[in-house]
Amino acid sequence: MSAISILALDTSTEFCSVALYLNSLGTERAIVRHRHTGAVSSAHILPLIRDVLDEGGLALGACHAIAFGAGPGSFTGLRTACGVAQGLAYGAGLPVIPVSTLLACAEMARAQHPEPGRVMVALDARMEEVYWADYTWDGRSRGWVVNHDAALDAPEGLPQPDEPFMLAGNAAAIFGDRLPLAGRARVVLPEALPHASAVAALAARDFALGRTLPAHEAAPFYIRNKVAQTVAERQAAAGQRATLAHLAEGR
Length: 251
What we know:
By secondary structure, this protein is of the alpha/beta class. It is built from seven helices and ten strands. Helix 3 (about 100-110) packs across helix 6. The two termini are about 25 Å apart.
């Protein structure tokens, strides 16, 4: 295929992040919108999608797939990205590509350090816990090896790799000395957080390998069951329903 275009979404954190990945004859670029929106990404995501598609000169139906940050992350945020990706994919007849938000953090670390080697990812999961995963970048295959998939633990309970590693994610900044892992990392990258540009880059590799799903199989990846919703989260959920209603009207 001479050209590939993938729309990527991530609302797993307090940022609403949208990217349009374009690859034409091996030349890659991404058109990105990344805004701090708090718990109300659903009110912003459609305008940002329109922005990147307009800038790229593409109709949604001209994309090859829609990728989304599937989790772990904010309960409401994951539902927003998944629901919007699914609604758009249904309407345009496109497949979806769920992407781990923790792997997206590792990919953001690689954007700063192209040959990162071992990367531990640790994100604040609230409730005094951390989402974490362990990856290694294989420079020969140009892909990620999963040493330990996404898990949830107290910050003191994360394992310590027996080789040099980078630490991506905001847990070190949130928990400080309660995260002993940070003290052993050769590099700490608290700004390496879930981002649509990383979701897009990972999705492009999955697409090339045929790793897509039909829209009806799109689903968030939760590690921890939801205990309660805050007022802001309930408002965000209501905003998501309104977003999907607008989507249906715009098909």
